[in-house]
Amino acid sequence: MNPPEGTRQAEWRQLKLLLPYLLAFPRRVALAVACLLVAKGATVLLPIALKHIVDALNGGQKTEVYLPIMLLAAYGGLRLSSVLFGELRDLVFGRVTERAMHRIALRIFQHLHALDLDFHLSRPTGGVSRDIERGVGGIRFLLRFALFNVAPTLVEIVLVTGIMFFYYSIWFAVIIVASVAAYVAVTAALTEWRTRHVREANRLDARANTRAVDSLLNYETVKYFGNEAFEASNYDADLEQWEAAMRRSRQSLGVLNTLQALVIALAITAMMILAAHRVVAGAMTIGGLTMVNAYVLQLFLPLNALGFVYRELKRSMANASRMFQLLDIASNVEEPDNPVKVASQQPRIVFENVDFTYQSDRQILKNVSFTIEPGQKVAVVGASGAGKSTLARLLFRFYDVTEGAIRIGDTDIRNLSLSALRDAIGVVPQDTVLFNDTIEYNIRYGQPDADRQAVERAAHTAHLGALIEELPAGMDTLVGERGLKLSGGEKQRIAIARAVLKNPPILIFDEATSSLDSHAEAGISSALAELAVDHTTLVIAHRLSTVVDADEILVLERGRIIERGSHTNLLDAGGHYASMWWAQHQSSYISQASARYALG
Questions:
Q1: pTM value?
Q2: Under a CB-based contact definition with an 8 Å cutoff, are residues 57 and 68 in contact?
Q3: Do 384 and 493 sit in the same domain of this protein?
Q4: Which helix (H) or strand (E) holds 56?
């Protein structure tokens, strides 16, 4: 079964993306092609030189035998030239290949980072990384092997066919053309058939890798529920399907290799029978027979390799195409055509009649309107799922509003460049994920060019000093994969230190103290309050005790603002906020009483 025509066209279309990377080094490409032609010319001339050497040693029609020094020297020179210029070709073109792989991998990496949050929340991380890995490997093959094997082999076939016709008989040329045509037809037909199995094996390999990566990233969850056997069973099931697909791929390869060997064997046999018959008839010398034999071996050995190259070419094209398809994924959050800059160091933020829908049947925000004046702190509270964190994601333009507008100053944020908008905002998220590097690296991530003293000041402001002093390596302590070597509170302090170091005009605290104990919360809240004095701040909180100093508190329920005002006014109103406040304080009082009873 052949792949869909659209799939083949897409693969060839994606390969056009390689041309700019080749044209970036025109002189190197031209020199590599020149070396290729010299090496291939020397290779084609070798059997002719060998014929004359054999005929000279055989004496031809003469009775004396002499040593053909010049012919032997020429043969050695041709052999050396073939190898030398082949190596020179690889050396010259290697720079082109490496730079192309470098630039393509970088382009894919940058594009993935430019995609919106929705893509990254739904992407299979292991599958994407495996697609990129195989795609870059496919490009290496396409540039280094296919480019300098397919075309040169075809040129060599044409030259050898012409030489055999010129020196001897058209029947030699007919055998070569017929055998090459049969070989190419068998290879093309069966490779298209087995490519289906290769694609299926690649798909299953990506799925198994995705499951493995996902399981390892969620190591703690697996341990909490004792589901090691369950995870292993799922991974084993995926590997079994991959193994079956690989078995079908291997069996189809065996059929292909057998038929290719049959075509080559028949062609070699026919050529040697014809040559031997002409020697017996006196129409060909022993040197001529040697020349035919050399050309047969010289032609069909690379032709046999051409079968491998064709198979790998198809697989590499499929792998490269799959990687390049990542570039076809468009972000739902687009850069404006004529972006403007953030106008103020203390900007005014306006949410105007904002509606937002993740999916057509799930509306998150409904007609939300509020204003954060320059230097003001506005808090949003409410039950889980009310849409609080969505406000922060919309302000940061992880998503665009469905209806309404969000403005900074008088400018719709959709008219700001994404880099300018995000440079103006510092975020302390609820779930802090750290890089597998040092504490200093993770703090400095807020401002990569900051010096050590600035990093230390940010750490001190975030109340990290005691932790750093306790650690033997201090700021150079590795935090582990996703920061798993640190507690939730320690990770959150690092996130706060990042925001302190970045020092942007707008701050977003999304449950910034949710992982801290009461003592640490008091210290961090004080530091955050001090930091927010000269900033426009949006605070998203579940603990109402952290927002009592806010200039305005918004109570969100099912995507709508149902109450707004200061802490005191909302308590006096005796509404939803007041009920939440007393419920949290009652829960806190019960917890403290239980703790005292346990200690007593």
A1: 0.63
A2: yes
A3: no
A4: helix 26-58
Report the first-to-last Cα separation within the chain, whole angstroms. 78
Q: How many domains does the chain have?
A: 3
Neighbouring C-alpha atoms within 13 Å toward the C-beta of 28: 16
How much of the chain exceeds pLDDT 70, in percent?
A: 84
10 Å CB burial of residue 1 (0-12, 13-18, 19+) is exposed
CA-nearest of 331, 250, 42, 50 to 167 is 50
Q: Say if residue 393 is in the same domain as residue 538.
A: yes
Tokens linked to 98 = 């490496």
Does residue 146 have a pLDDT over 70? no
Tokens standing for 450? 């900051």
Kindly state whether residues 405 and 518 are assigned to the same domain: yes
Whether the predicted pLDDT of 153 surpasses 70: yes
Which residue in 437, 496, 438, 443 sits closest to 471, CA to CA?
A: 438
Query: Beta strand pairing status for 536-541 and 506-510?
Result: parallel
| Distances in whole angstroms, Cα of residue 125 to Cα of each of 119, 130, 201, 208 | 11, 9, 18, 12
Which ranges in 374-487 belong to alpha helices (H)?
A: 388-395, 418-423, 439-444, 452-461, 465-470
**Contact by Cβ (8 Å): 342, 515:** no
Strand, coil or helix: 155: helix
CB contact set of 377 (below 8 Å; sequence gap of 6+): 532, 537, 539, 549, 550, 551
CA distance 180 to 263: 9
Q: Are residues 306 and 355 in the same domain?
A: no
Residues 239 and 285 in one domain: yes
In terms of domains, do 24 and 62 share one? yes
Q: What is the CATH number of the domain that holds 499?
A: 3.40.50.300
Same domain, yes or no: 63 and 190 = yes
Q: What is the CATH number of the domain that holds 27?
A: 1.20.1560.10
pLDDT given for residue 596 in this prediction? 45
